[in-house]
Amino acid sequence: xxxxxxxxxxxxxxxxxxxxxxxxxxxxxxxxxxxxxxxxxxxxxxxxxxxxxxxxxxxxxxxxxxxxxxxxxxxxxxxxxxxxxxxxxxxxxxxxxxxxxxxxxxxxxxxxxxxxxxxxxxxxxxxxxxxxxxxxxxxxxxxxxxxxxxxxxxxxxxxxxxxxxxxx
Length: 168
Fold this sequence. Notes:
By secondary structure, the chain is an alpha+beta fold. It has helices at 2-19, 23-28, 34-42, 71-80, 87-108, and strands at residues 47-48, 59-66, 117-122, 128-134, 147-152.
């Protein structure tokens, strides 16, 4: 559904530039519903990778990044801002974010009998989890207070740099 609205908005934007329409003209003739545009673009409280098809019923593997930074990173950021934060306090915040996420999963997914599985928890380089669930159910996570970003869980392969011929 979002793809449809995006395409409509793109079409209308192109048409308006050709016909020299402005935003008031588009709203006046009902070509764009201002409330719908605001609702669609401002409804999420966190970033969801646009490559994820939220209308699919297939299981998808995702990585969820929490708002709370990993302990060592939080300590370094606090130090850079001139604030006091010990490693123990930062570690406690990371643990609390995981506990809160587990509680939210109970209300957001378990109570609605949504099948999911947590594959791995991350606390060192990234604070978050990787999990499998139906893509359409990611919308339920919009009510979470812990989540900052959701990415598809993909393998990434880096190609080694090619050495110049004379250095072999």
